[in-house]
Amino acid sequence: MDIEEIKFSSHGLVPAITQDAVTGEVLMLAYMNLGSLTKTLETRRVHYYSRSRQELWLKGETSGNFQELKAIYYDCDCDTLLLKIEQIGEGACHTGERSCFYRRLDDESDGAINEGAAILPILAKIIEGRKEADSKSSYVASLFKGGRELINSKVAEESGELIEAANLGVKKDIIHEAADLWFHSMVLLSNEGISMEDLFDEFARRFGTSGVEEKKSRAKKG
What is the per-residue pLDDT across 164-187, written as a single tens digit (0 to 9) for each? Predict the structure, then answer.
């Protein structure tokens, strides 16, 4: 990336869209000038430019909700930035919401955007945080306390229940049991020190590869 390619407005600003690097969730829109962009690249912590205060500001300096920079992209017209970040703390929005985009214009219902599969890394973070929780008040913590044997047995149990639901053919029951299996599988992954990023990397490795060929490659390794 060459900063000289960025087209700042007549006021010396460029809009910056901030997105969670793992989940893809859009968190906020703010503005940068040359100084804040340079500072962000130097420190790998996101700095913006406040149009009201007319000064640079480090996101999270007051709240502790810092944004760790993972990557910066710019669009085809070179006049908008996309920041891929790791959100530290409660969230990006000053209201306390994780994302600034929690209100819906074309519908009366508000609330978080359904990010589809992007919810999995968010759930993984919650699961990881339960490792230090009280096992008497947290189901997930009780699984971690039980260790590998208990967690493995739960995954096997949930797998059997999903198969039973599929045999009966009731869609809502299949969905329910599939969610249970995914959840307990994520606990298993966390217990084994495997992150969602590790899993995504494996999917990316397989993407575009024939399933037959992929299985053959595993057989050769064995």
Answer: 999 999 999 999 999 999 999 999
Superfamily covering domain 116-221? MazG-like (1.10.287.1080)
> Which residues, listed in sequence order, are joined to residue 49 by a DSSP beta bridge?
56
| Residues above pLDDT 70, as percent of the chain | 89
54's CB contacts (< 8 A; 6+ apart) are none
Which residue would you say has higher pLDDT here, 21 or 176? 176
Take residue 19 and report the two structure tokens written for it: 């997105």
Tell me the domain boundaries of the chain: 3-87, 116-221
Cα angle at 92 between 89 and 98, to 5 degrees?
Answer: 80
**What are the start-end ranges of the E strands in 4-136?**
14-20, 26-32, 47-50, 55-58, 67-74, 81-87
pLDDT at 39 over 60: yes
DSSP E strands in 59-128: the ranges are 67-74, 81-87
Q: Which helix (H) or strand (E) holds 195?
A: none
Q: 3-87: CATH homologous superfamily?
A: Phosphoribosyl-AMP cyclohydrolase (3.10.20.810)
Residue 155: C-alpha distances to residues 4, 93, 113, 177, 215 (Å): 53, 37, 29, 11, 23
